[in-house]
Backbone:
């Protein structure tokens, strides 16, 4: 079994000090007219489950809510349905969960993130926890996009140019991933050809309403496909497995 | 559609100021040898979904982690797999989510809780938020056990005596509810006849290891059944629908 | 001597690692037209003093202010004169005091509470402190109502039916206790026959003004008497003494 | 009636927007071999009661615990029986209480302090509260020593030279005040002739154990008397009354 | 005059609601064997001063300490001399300063950052402040590297390939900038040819000691020159001026 | 070299466990019509540099912003240009910096303060840090005014009477110090003869606008001179050197 949520405590107890415990972290954030608000969490949970199957890991219930969406990587906080946590809250939340795992005797923790804006706050939480961890405990954090090679980028962006990872929001990679992980939630017919025209080179508050397209799309999503989703998943998963093996299995 | 997680932001946007938004809150907590760690969250999500169907509501992604399990209502924090948040963290988490909803223009919020120990901290969060809510916004919090009549209690506890709600942990009501909401996660064959023998009349720290049975069972779970689950669900749901109608529909 | 407030530090110093240190926790909260705002603190201080006499304990200065009054257990925060602390403040306050005691070398701490709403926050503070306590240190928390047997309840509620502990606010038990602990502050002539008519089965914010009677009385106080106060005190005190003896004296 | 603790909420309610509400703030701190740990709170409560009688004020239950004792003004934190709050805790505690008063409609608040080290943290709390106070609300903070004239100092320090207010700890002024406010708690026979020999001109941590005399006495207490207590009380009280009249009565 | 630190309050007062107030934010962080620990702050202060001259702005005293150095963008926290703030501290610090400016009536605030790791926490602070800003107040945040065009990158990286901004730590751009801003603090003779060999594609805690070169250099610094510094400054400054003009001058 | 900001990490690393590390703490605060807003920080940095030269110390980058100016010691928060931190922020800031030093292996830390209002909050931070410091680590805090003898006071206040240290704000001592440390920032021609007429004997909020002179001057600055600056510096520096030698060099 991979899902902690369906385990009894007896089942968790038997495996807790031997197996990698995987914490998926997502967000509730606008992803344009065609993708669900839970896109990031679906992706994190999807990768976590696949990784657990490969490395005999345990998938924890996800952190469903994430840090504040930024205009140039998620459309920003002004879209209804984007439900953001303050930085200090996310730090405390992750800290508490990791500390509980460690108190339970867990030694191998892998955080799987797929919401760009979470990164700094997840690392802050992990850093604070790591200062008091017992010897031998390790925490890794992985984001799928960091594991994609240029070769795969070239294949995925065969027609549309690659806009960089931050701007790849609700665009080809995420659409392709959801087409694979939760196809029933994608509305390809609603996808429109819109993208951020002028990527801001600075930040301004109050955030202007017209900084990003009204649809919330930052980059072109055309040419998304389940096949591309498979390609990305295969490579990112391979990377994750090899990280887990390298860090935890020797 | 009831699940916010599967909505696009367009879909949420259209309904956000008309419909009740329902936030299920659970926990990751030992529930004996036969029930899953996610028992409370499964129940909260189950009720939230049913309620949403009845009142045309929107179910938010759950708060998956809850406040610290207490010995006399959840077995306490010493069971591996029980992953608890500190009080201040849960308060901040709920506060942030509610404030984001309100900033989005949501006016009707229903918090559905099924983890006993969450109550004080959820109310603290709601209280803090309510001090700055715009006129016309309302938040209700409901726990299913508060909506069960003596009549139903008598039916459910036909053989085993009712031990009180706090002690009804991993026992007849929760087992029956999970038999209905997620039967594939229940292991009736592993259920044993164990209960807390001497209910403590005070609290002591460090929490003694032998305060509760080694299984984590606080009360007798025998006689649990899907039928009893249906009975409880029917009555609690009726109560929830009537609360929502009373508070939000006039 | 029992009262730490009247001790010199020399006197405290000599007893600090041998004797039980008792921390009374109360509140400043409406208690109807006939009881003083300090009802809870008076009761906690009263029990603490009696307990100290029995077990050779030291009574600390009380925590005079408590957590937020709730409508269905204290009338709620809308009554002028109810002065409530935020949850995080009460947690920090209790944490600091307990940690100071422990730094001083105190090994045996008993928290005596008589404000229903304090419970979750007191336990959170104690839990946080207990994670770093030196071996051999113990903290117990006691609330007088948890120590009353059904037999005594039957005697006290000889005419008026027992409404449950949460609703026993400014009613027979508290009135009887104050008639014993601080009779000069009770105005029996102002006591009126009022009670909450429909006990709410859920919480709603903003808290409706008409949820509880205008007097702040939640249950019937008629038949209160000093004799009943004595009865309750005798039994609760016996319980407290036996807890202290069990936890600290072996 | 002056004591809020003995008022019913009806009584408080009638006076809350007309009368000055007085909050005494003290500490639990070593005061040498002859004075009680509660010396500061006794003094604050004593002044608060007298002031209330003069200006028809309402005395709140005291803040019993204060900020950390410093070596050169209270002996420091190493004396058993000195129970100190962290700075952030005291700030939050005072903030909560003041905000509750203001929510209740109180317009005139006087904080009466007698623990030297509390000052900065009390002012921080008041400052934070004052940023959001309704127009017309005022908070004053008074410490008795700020109201003593040179003439009175000369009278009180007729034999022993005045060491400055910070060092006047457990010495002539405080002993004289307690001889007046709570004479039964003073042990003049235990008073010894000891004082800090070299007043430190800087702070060092860890705090050296030999920085202050082993008795905790910082200055000479000889020549303390009830008459001197009366003298100090008379003058400080006159000052407090005139402050209240000036700030609140026009 | 540009430097607030040298202004009297009269001078600041006259300009506070007309002129842009510029807040430089830096860090104290290892920058290899040849650059000073204050590299980032020197750069921020340098840009702030030049910008102020161009737009008649006021430069505030810098925030001297920044967020935690990360291995792949600053070498990480293990280098002595790297003095990092926790995330919550930096957020609070920036929040307080911005709120004070706004209370003083300042309407135009430009934050100039040059420490990569600060970004998320600065934006969190600005976001929190912006929720309560008076209408008409604006805050921009600028990092010099976001304003450099590909053309300039090509010129600066004429021999050594551009490793991306995160890895450009203590390398060509920062060395060139310090050669211009504070040449006396650069030790070109100590610069060695070292760089991170395998850029990590994930994060792991505890941070391994051998993740980055022992020198703290992440990329090649050879070919740094004052001329390149001038080139970068000219372009970034032009960008900053145009941002300020666009956001504040219409 | 004395300035950490200009050191490479190699240079800091070699000296970090042998030499005293000096942290100057200042403020951004009104100092009348003739002194710069950075007066306190200039003084702290000035003393820190001189002290470092004497004891082979290392001067850290200053804490540029300080705690809230008070009317009777700094004019209060109402003067534009006075940029104050909240108490909790300053505590956290100092705590983080000290803890980082200690993690780096620094054993000898001297905090040099020159902003009156900082004192309580600096000590709170140091106290919190000191509870977990490794054996052998020491932190001292020094404020220059505590090191001035009566003899020097008599010389400096040859014409104008000494008003006490709290009121010596933007007056003779600070003006004389800046005339020595940063003469180019002093405008003696703008100095006017103004002082607080009635020193308040209590605090009141909201802070009245007319509590202090409109210029922000609390005491007479006439007769300030570079010579007096030299006198004060010589004596305070001697005191600091002797403290450092006493605490760290045996």
Residues:
């Amino acid at each position: 079994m991979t899902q902690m949520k369906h385990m009894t405590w007896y089942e968790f107890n038997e495996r807790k000090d031997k197996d990698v415990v995987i914490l998926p972290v997502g967000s509730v954030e606008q992803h344009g007219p065609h993708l669900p608000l839970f896109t990031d969490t679906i992706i994190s949970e999807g990768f976590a489950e696949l990784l657990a199957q490969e490395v005999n890991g345990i998938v924890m219930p996800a952190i469903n809510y994430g840090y504040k969406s930024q205009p140039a990587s998620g459309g920003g906080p002004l879209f209804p349905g984007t439900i953001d946590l303050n930085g200090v809250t996310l730090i405390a939340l992750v800290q508490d969960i990791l500390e509980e795992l460690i108190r339970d005797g867990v030694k191998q923790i892998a955080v799987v993130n797929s919401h760009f804006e979470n990164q700094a706050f997840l690392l802050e939480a992990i850093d604070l926890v790591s200062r008091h961890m017992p010897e031998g405990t390790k925490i890794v954090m992985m984001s799928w996009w960091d594991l994609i090679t240029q070769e795969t980028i070239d294949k995925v962006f065969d027609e549309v140019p690659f806009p960089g990872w931050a701007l790849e929001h609700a665009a080809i990679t995420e659409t392709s991933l959801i087409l694979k992980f939760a196809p029933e939630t994608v509305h390809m017919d609603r996808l429109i050809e819109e993208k951020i025209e002028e990527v801001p080179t600075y930040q301004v508050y109050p955030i202007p309403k017209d900084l990003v397209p009204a649809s919330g799309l930052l980059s072109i999503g055309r040419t998304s496909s389940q096949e591309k989703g498979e390609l990305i998943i295969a490579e990112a998963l391979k990377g994750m497995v090899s990280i887990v093996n390298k860090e935890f299995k020797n």
